Amino acid sequence: MGTAAEMLRQARASIGIARRPNVITREYANRHGSEFLTAAWCDMAVTYWARHSGNTAAVLPGGDRAYTVWHAQDFQKAGRWYKGTAANVDAAKPGDIVFFDWGGADSVGAIDHVGVIEKALGGGRVQTIEGNTGDQCLRRVRSYTVIAGYGRPKYDAPKPNYWDVQSTVAGRRVRVPWATPFLKRGMEGARVRWLQDALKGLGYSIPTAGDDFGPITDAALRDFQSKHRDERGQKLEQDGIYGHHSARALFIAHGGNAEDAV
Q1: Residue 251: CB partners within 8 Å, gap ≥ 6?
Q2: What is the pLDDT of residues 134-161, one digit of tens each?
Q3: Chain region(s) in the chain for CATH 3.90.1720
Q4: Domain boundaries 162-260, CATH class
Q5: Which of 8, 81, 84, 175 can pair with 76 through a Cys bridge, CB separation 3.0 to 4.6 Å?
Q6: Where in the numbering of this chain does the Peptidoglycan binding-like domain appear (predicted)?
Q7: What CATH number was assigned to the domain covering residues 4-151?
């Protein structure tokens, strides 16, 4: 099986698909019949993302779905269904499969539409990615008032992509990100935040706000590279690119065991 992150990666890759037939309806029709070529395709999109992200069993507990009511019932039967209350919507997780009832009845039998939750926004709202919304695949912001409920797939736990080390320098636990893929100026995200925090733990002054790899992070990394060597004893290249050698050196600088830096 796959992860919620992989499910969302596939959904994001579909943003911009429009009209029908399209790649999603064609694939579904190839398996289930030509009548699906031009049918409503919101749940076909969820099926497509699940199949292409290795999440078939998690997202489709009853098999491929084009009919949203049956899909929601699959989650009910699996004991993984959450009603669309404001509190439940605020507790939604990325990758949850969200079902809509435009009439606001919150009845599974009245479900009209489906998408995948990208993130909870608070206030009973979620950001979603949906196929067949205006005959396109788009991001939307939806309120609990039109959410009948959501199913929570049993995704695999995400694989770690950092070393968790009790830093002998910072005197606290630090996440030192792995360099897969490399990090460099212009990038953003959680791994950049971990890199910034690990550099701060060594005494570098980096603003706490934001998660972008900007000029301050670039300068701090280059300075770190100028003062450290790789596992072969060679000086790190001062290129501002957080690659494998720099990652291992940063892990070891925080007191990590060199034998674990693989």
Answers
A1: 163, 165, 176, 260, 261
A2: 999 999 999 999 999 999 999 998 778 8
A3: 4-151
A4: mainly alpha
A5: 81
A6: 189-243
A7: 3.90.1720
